[in-house]
Amino acid sequence: MSHVSSHSPHGQSPLRTVQVLGGGNAGSSAHVRSLTSGLVARGVKVTVCAPVEADRLYDFTGAGADHVHVPRSSDPGSVSALRAACSDADLVHAHGLHASFRAVLALSGRSTPLVVTWHDRAHAEGARAHLVRLLERRVVKAASVVLGATSALVDRARTTGARDARLAAVALPGARGAVRLEDPDRPRPKVRAELGATGRPLLMAVGSLDRHRGYDTLLDASRAWRALDPVPLVVIAGEGALRGELQRRIEDEELPVRLIGRRDDIAELLAAA
Question: Is the separation of the CB atoms in 136 and 229 below 8 Å?
């Protein structure tokens, strides 16, 4: 297959894409940072619409993008700000269900293609679960393509009504997208020592500390591993509503688990495991 360049022919304006983020969680933010670097290198003009704190942490502008502050979904001005930012876009790429729904509203009445990436599933119960299903149907029917980070997400998009749903690779979470797998000033043994995993197996988990992420099962497993010699250490990187509850269980049951919060060196941590 021959290489297809994204550079515009002489005399034409470069292609412009708008990347839309909601709350700017680690996975989707790292993915957008990675996409931005690749697109800019190919001559595509990129605008990232996200809360200002996401640009502070992931430095989209440092990767070559224009950053437009779009408030979180609860802000009534978010859709109008997004509509203005997308006014001359050749393509809009939204990440996550709520960001995607706002993009659908912002593009109402326009023919701009919309690509949607689902990085994880939106979980809800009761009346809210019905609302989530309605949002999913509205989004997938409006999207030209739905990309899923897992085959389960792709299957869900298809059963919800997506005309084109595909599996897509996503970047590992890590601030500013510039983490190296092996920092010469911080080799693997040093990282393991910092985590307290010298001479014992290390298991890393990365993700927001929310329900439906499987942390209860992971802690159950860690309790069984206490009989092993040496005892494996489980390290969980991430923040979320469950942190206090998980920490209490770790302490009460004396589990070999550490919660280390949000980190910007995820690639190094994973390489050390």
Answer: no
Model-level pTM?
A: 0.73
What confidence tens digit (pLDDT) does each residue in 181-222 have?
455 566 888 999 999 999 999 999 988 888 778 899 999 999
Q: Using CA atoms, how far apart are residues 163 and 159, in angstroms rounded to an integer? A: 10
* Cα–Cα dist 23/71, whole Å: 9
pLDDT digits (tens, 9 = 90+) for 12-63: 678 999 999 987 676 788 889 989 999 999 999 999 999 888 888 889 999 9
8-state DSSP, 75? S
Residue among 251, 183, 256, 195 at smallest CA distance from 225: 256
Q: What is the pLDDT of residues 156-174, one digit of tens each?
A: 999 999 999 999 887 665 5
What DSSP element (H or E) covers 93?
strand 91-95
Where does the chain hold its CATH 3.40.50.2000 domain(s)? 16-175, 182-272
CATH of segment(s) 16-175: 3.40.50.2000
183 DSSP 8-state letter: B
User: Which two three-digit tokens encode residue 134?
Assistant: 């309605």
